Automatic annotation (TrEMBL):
SUPFAM superfamilies cross-referenced by the UniProt entry: Periplasmic binding protein-like II
Taxonomic superkingdom: Bacteria
Locations listed in the record: Periplasm
This protein's UniProt keywords: Lipoprotein, Palmitate, Signal, Transport
Family of this protein: Belongs to the bacterial solute-binding protein SsuA/TauA family.
Coiled-coil regions, chain positions: none
Pfam families from the UniProt entry: NMT1 (PF09084)
Residues in Solute-binding protein family 3/N-terminal domain copies: 46-262
Organism: Halalkalibacter alkalisediminis
Signal sequence segment: none
Main location as per UniProt: periplasm
TM helices/strands, residue ranges: none
InterPro entries: ABC_SsuA_sub-bd, Solute-binding_3/MltF_N, SsuA/THI5
Name of this chain's protein: Sulfonate ABC transporter substrate-binding protein
Length: 330
């Protein structure tokens, strides 16, 4: 293995594990997980679901029907919030959660790190839900203008792939820009005070920056990336709990259908849950596509392409086979 590639990846994984440990402790009051106690996922009494600031699972949590439906079967849900996909999948890796959602890129990093993840389902492509932003009065007018500039993003997140594709499309290399890696909250601060020239970010942070900071879209994901939301599970949980997973997917699809037909009402409903003003959430929902389906061959091939790209750029330590993260007949 290339030594530089290995060092960079190990630093990334170590940082994610540290952040995840802090997040899990904050949400559950525990500094770790009892992996042995949860090794047998049959006859499960509690499903541990990881979610982020915004997404389909977040809507499902707020709506509450899944909790009631599983409660009727004697199963409780523990909802655990994470700042981003990489941290959520690290928690899945160490056994803190059974099921969760991320964008396209985090599962690639997780699989390369040996995490026992499996793809369950995905939403449709929503390329307008992430973008490269610059300040309102920035002299930067094109991706080519980013050469020599500072760009901030959350390493290993969906927008990592967006930046890669945008830079390649402009005829540049990643080495042509100075990339800083920060989680969304810290990245927003750096962007707002001018410490960086551009911010690569996803909704709802993207919409919030547009409205509150008057940030300008340099380029969104349209024509570059799919920007799908993925639902993933820990392998042993998925292998013996397809009935539970099917119920989760049914409820997610039902919620998605309602939101797509009632965007204004959904935004008002979610606003207190996620502490984001309803007009901002409306902007997010209006550029989001809806619908949940089990992963298909086409989607898996897109994920393989992302994995190959990250490997060729030395962002992951070894090549991955996306089908190693799939359960047959699921």
């Amino acid at each position: 293995m290339n030594l530089f590639r290995k060092i960079i990846f190990l630093v990334f994984i170590s940082n994610v594990a540290l952040i995840t440990g802090c997040a899990a402790q904050k949400e559950t009051g525990s500094s770790g997980s009892n992996i042995e106690a949860r090794a047998d996922h049959s006859n499960i009494e509690t499903v541990h679901i990881g979610y982020q600031k915004f997404g389909t699972l977040n809507i499902l949590k707020a709506e509450g029907n899944l909790d009631e439906r599983l409660k009727d079967q004697g199963i409780a849900i523990e909802w655990i919030e994470f700042p981003a996909g990489p941290q959520l999948l690290e928690a899945l890796n160490v056994g803190s959660i059974d099921f969760g959602h991320t964008g396209e890129a985090p599962p690639i990093f997780a699989q390369a790190a040996g995490a026992p993840i499996v793809y369950i389902a995905n939403g449709p492509a929503s390329p307008k839900g992430e973008a490269i932003l610059v300040q309102k009065n920035s002299p930067i007018k094109s991706i080519e203008d980013l050469k020599g500039k500072k760009v901030v993003l959350n390493r290993g997140s969906n927008v990592h792939y967006l930046l890669v594709k945008a830079i390649q499309d402009a005829g540049l290399q990643l080495d042509d820009i100075e990339v800083t890696y920060l989680p969304p909250g810290d990245a927003r601060i750096a962007f707002d005070r001018g410490d960086v020239d551009a911010w690569v970010i996803w909704d709802p942070f993207f919409a919030s920056a547009e409205v509150e900071l008057e940030a300008r879209i340099l380029r969104d994901g349209e024509g570059l990336v799919a920007n799908r939301e993925f639902l993933l599970a820990e392998r042993t949980f998925a292998e013996v709990n397809d009935e539970i997973i099917s119920i989760i997917l049914e409820e997610l699809d039902s919620v998605d259908q309602w939101v797509s037909e009632n965007i204004g009402e959904a935004a008002a409903f979610l606003s207190p849950e996620v502490s984001i003003e309803a007009p901002i959430l409306e902007k997010v929902l209006e550029r989001r596509e809806f619908g949940i389906s089990r992963v298909t061959e086409e989607v898996l091939l897109d994920q393989q392409s992302i994995g190959d790209t990250f490997y060729n750029l030395d962002l992951i330590p070894s090549e991955i086979n996306i089908y190693d993260a799939v359960i047959e007949n699921k």
